[in-house]
Amino acid sequence: MVEIVVDDSFLISQILECGQSFRYKHIENNIYDIIAFEKRIRINQVGKHVYMDCSNEEYNRLWVRYFDMDRDYEQIQSVLVKIDPVLKKAITEKKGLRILRQAPFEMLLTFILSQNKAIPQIKVLVERLCETYGHMVLDHYGSYYTFPTAEVLAEVSVEAWRKLKVGFRAPYLYDAIQKVVEGVIDFATIEEMDDNMARDKLMEINGVGQKVADCILLFAFGRVEVFPLDIWVRRMMTHAYFNDQMITDQIILEFADRYFKGLGGLAQQYLFYYGRDHQIGK
Question: Can you tell me the mean pLDDT for 129-149?
Fold first, then answer.
């Protein structure tokens, strides 16, 4: 068991339930199970004390990076809250949110699956995928399934994908997996690219547009400057900054790039979570 002391920028419920992660289970209070990197970890937060059911070695090897523990979120928040009252209100309410550093291949498939789906539906699809093609692991909490590898999924046909009830996403998933296996999409290379090159490379995959590519860059690669624009973010942005006018996505993206001082991904996540919870602009 590892115990860490955190500040107000770490609240496990907000980290997990803000729409960036889909392989977690709420046990009770601030106790959650998370499955990532073929491991399951139980987290229990009591005030500023966070208890993680893992060894010190595993915590340092996996979970420090996963929870983005080396980034100073309080300093970032001190910059963002000065920008405007809307963002300040969102951060004040959702200040325990952090950007997780998740596995790139898992994020690629997850955010292809996420298109036109609500969070509970995404969780069901991801879990069905893992139960069908992942590896079952037994630990002292019972059994769970790992996220399947690209090599295993390379043998899955478009028709087999459709049997998993993924709908129109089936050929997109197939294309993504083939490009990963063939080396057309290489995550180590993407890690070294600038944002525009990395986004363009990801968008070579059928069905991956800018929003999905930016979600991968933010939630797998920690590119906190990118600004994924989905329906909730659009509603929040147009309501808060454009007086509910009909405007293009490009105008919003250009505004965000200038306005949020290179921290658009974090600003987006605070605004998304706050706007969704309060049904702003709906």
Answer: 96
